[in-house]
Amino acid sequence: MRNYLNQHELGLAGLALLRNRLVGHEKVTKSVLHEIRNLSRSFANNSLSKTKVKKYSLSSGYTAWAETYDTTANLLIEVEEPVVKALLQKLTKGSVLDVACGTGRYSEFLYSLGYKVTGLDQSSAMLRQAKIRSPHIKFIEGNLTKLPFDDSCFDLAICALALTHVPDISPSVKEMSRVVRPGGNIVISDVHPWLIVLGAQAEFQDKTGRRGYITNYVHWHSTYFQIYKRLGLKVLQCSEPVIEKKHMRLTQKGFSLTTKTIATALLGLPVALIWVLEKPSV
């Protein structure tokens, strides 16, 4: 497993070198190059390809991840969640559908704000955790591409960090638009496409400590805009929260790279893409 971490470290060091190359300091460049040379020595005898990270399907992945999802520090959630919560507090309270609710982190928050909450997820394992966390909330098993609700029956729909797992986001956004009433809102947060291009997948450790990942797909801003335009949805806000100094503790976890190298690589990079939409009144 150390080989797997070395690969990640080598990638981060390379990113630091690239970002520092023309606009940084020579001292930093020399330090990063020194770390790259040291890391490269660990990849002798073609060991670079020997990793122990299992690829899971969406269903089996969240079954394996469910029991550790809320107990393991997650940089993406650390950056994304405060922004989404601040946005939700500004919206008019009413009935809300938490699409792909997972373990119910937003379902519980919305309930605390006074919303009438329904949570939906296709993973029974994740829903079990949600029901333990929030037994007072109604949770339903279902697919985000075919929501089991009538048209225009919610004031708000939220979908957090889930659309990245589907190759085509159009059916899911269309379904959320269908079940939200005219004048209602949709909040979508997801992994930033630039982060996925850099290699970010939905990595996790199960309860035995085994590492795995679920595939993330790249969805550029233009893809979202085209779908919103086709469905007649109005963009009220687009946020792209970035990695800040206060997040550095999480970025360093498990790595031997210097703080300076990791900061040079990651500070200021967007990790989430967050949309607030309005379904126009008829």
Provide structural commentary.
This protein is α/β, with parallel strands linked by helices and 282 residues long. It has eleven helices and ten strands. The strands form two sheets. A seven-stranded mixed sheet has the order 4-3-2-5-6-10-9. The protein has a three-stranded mixed sheet with strand order 1-8-7. Helix 1 (2-20) runs antiparallel to helix 2 (26-40), helix 1 packs across helix 11 and helix 7 (170-179) crosses helix 9. The chain is globular, with a radius of gyration of 20 Å. The model has no long low-confidence stretch (mean pLDDT 93).
Keywords:
alpha/beta; Rossmann fold; seven-stranded mixed β-sheet; three-stranded mixed β-sheet; 11 helices
Present the secondary structure layout.
Elements: H1 2-20, H2 26-40, E1 54-56, H3 58-65, H4 75-90, E2 95-99, H5 105-113, E3 116-121, H6 124-133, E4 138-141, E5 154-160, H7 170-179, E6 180-191, H8 193-197, E7 202-205, E8 211-214, H9 221-231, E9 234-239, H10 248-252, H11 259-266, E10 272-278
Parallel strand pairs: 1-8, 2-3, 2-5, 3-4, 5-6
Antiparallel strand pairs: 6-10, 7-8, 9-10
Helix pairs in contact: 1-2, 1-11, 7-9
Short description:
This protein has eleven helices and ten strands. By secondary structure, it is α/β, with parallel strands linked by helices. Helix 1 packs across helix 11 (259-266) and helix 7 packs across helix 9.
Helices and strands, in order, run as: HHEHHEHEHEEHEHEEHEHHE
For the CA atoms, what is the radius of gyration?
A: 20 Å
Overall body shape: globular
Got a strand count? 10
What is the CATH C-level name of the largest domain?
Alpha Beta
Percent strand = 15-25%
The structural domain count equals 2
How are the strands ordered across the major sheet? 4-3-2-5-6-10-9
CATH superfamily of the largest domain: Vaccinia Virus protein VP39
- The CATH topology annotation of the largest domain reads as Rossmann fold
Most strands sheet: 7 strands, mixed
The assigned CATH architecture of the largest domain is 3-Layer(aba) Sandwich
Give the averaged pLDDT, no decimals.
93
Low-confidence stretches at least 5 residues in length (pLDDT < 50)?
A: none
Helix vs. strand class: alpha/beta
**Ends distance:** 56 Å
